[in-house]
Amino acid sequence: MKMRNPPVNSLSLEFLTELLISLEKLENDKTFRGIIITSDCPGIFSAGLDLLEMYGRDPAHCAEYWKAVQELWLRVYLSNLVVIGAINGISPAGGCLLSLSCDYRVLANNPKYAIGLNETLLGIIAPFWFKDVLVNTIGHRAAERALQLGFLFPPSDALQVGIVDQVVPEDQVQSTARSVMAQWLAIPDHARQLTKNLVRKPTADRLLQQRDADIQNFVRFISRDSIQKSLHVYLEKLKQKKG
Ligand SMILES: CCCCCC/C=C/CC(=O)SCCNC(=O)CCNC(=O)[C@H](O)C(C)(C)COP(=O)(O)OP(=O)(O)OC[C@H]1O[C@@H](n2cnc3c(N)ncnc32)[C@H](O)[C@@H]1OP(=O)(O)O
């Protein structure tokens, strides 16, 4: 599955909806046993959640958006398919969450690429379920530092901390993802799927038990003047970077 939402594969409501529809089709088609998620935007896996869906929007829109973000996470995280991330570009925040929700992550060894939950750098807070997935992946202490400091790990650090499973030359990302897929598909589906569910369900359940409260919490938080100001400053910085 090649994500194509130029210029930066930001996860807009429209794009999230497209991804959800595609994933549902694949999940329901019993001829598919696995998917490799990668990007069609050069140098960018995904710039994460679309800031324009959270900036200057009314509460109803923010609620609809957040529900779609939750839905995508639950669908990828609990997918019965083998999900491999072929991360061929920078992958901050929501892009990192998407990567962390895969069963295995292969990152291209390019010093321009980085991956991490950088929310604090924007003046916002990673929700508890983003945090849970990071803690599950890299451990409590490493997650504590990474989250507070908004670390974006370059490839060698990403491998060292365990936020990705493998770092390979850029031209080998897709072939490596395919070899990894073959290895995972060698396991009987039912055994692998039940085991995945056993490991992941408690984390997903934490959100499933309080989805509405999580939406309300998001809407309250994102609507605050101070948070809207932080988003404005960050968006302006992105614009100014262009010169
Ligand atoms: C309890 C409450 C919890 C709230 C939790 C909310 C959680 C949020 C999680 C997130 O995912 S927030 C998003 C975090 N993402 C980022 O910080 C990445 C920002 N983008 C970049 O750093 C760069 O754009 C890039 C990805 C490194 C690419 O750089 P490049 O130089 O190639 O392109 P740009 O010129 O910077 O960008 C092109 C174009 O795209 C716009 N844009 C970039 N990122 C986003 C985004 N995430 N959302 C919306 N739009 C984005 C950028 O502004 C440019 O737009 P323009 O109109 O062409 O100027």
UniProtKB/TrEMBL annotation:
Please give the SUPFAM superfamilies that the UniProt record associates with this protein.
ClpP/crotonase (SSF52096)
UniProtKB keywords:
Acetylation, Fatty acid metabolism, Isomerase, Lipid metabolism, Mitochondrion, Transit peptide
PROSITE patterns named in the record: ENOYL_COA_HYDRATASE
Q: Return the GO cellular component terms, semicolon-separated.
A: mitochondrial matrix
A molecular-function term among this protein's GO annotations: delta(3)-delta(2)-enoyl-CoA isomerase activity
Q: Does the keyword Acetylation apply?
A: yes
User: Its GO biological process terms?
Assistant: fatty acid beta-oxidation
Location relative to the cell? Mitochondrion matrix
Q: InterPro entries under this entry?
A: ClpP/crotonase-like_dom_sf, Enoyl-CoA_hyd/isom_CS, Enoyl-CoA_hydra/iso
Catalysed reaction per UniProt? Answer: (3Z)-dodecenoyl-CoA = (2E)-dodecenoyl-CoA; a (3E)-enoyl-CoA = a 4-saturated (2E)-enoyl-CoA; (3Z)-decenoyl-CoA = (2E)-decenoyl-CoA; (3Z)-octenoyl-CoA = (2E)-octenoyl-CoA
Which pathway does this polypeptide act in? Answer: Lipid metabolism; fatty acid beta-oxidation
Q: What is its EC number?
A: 5.3.3.8
Does the record's keyword annotation contain Lipid metabolism?
yes
Query: Where does it primarily localize?
Result: mitochondrion
Q: Which family does it belong to?
A: Belongs to the enoyl-CoA hydratase/isomerase family.
Indicate the quaternary assembly: Homotrimer.
Function of this protein? Key enzyme of fatty acid beta-oxidation. Able to isomerize both 3-cis (3Z) and 3-trans (3E) double bonds into the 2-trans (2E) form in a range of enoyl-CoA species, with a preference for (3Z)-enoyl-CoAs over (3E)-enoyl-CoAs. The catalytic efficiency of this enzyme is not affected by the fatty acyl chain length.
Name of the protein described by the UniProt record: Enoyl-CoA delta isomerase 1, mitochondrial
Encoding gene (name): ECI1
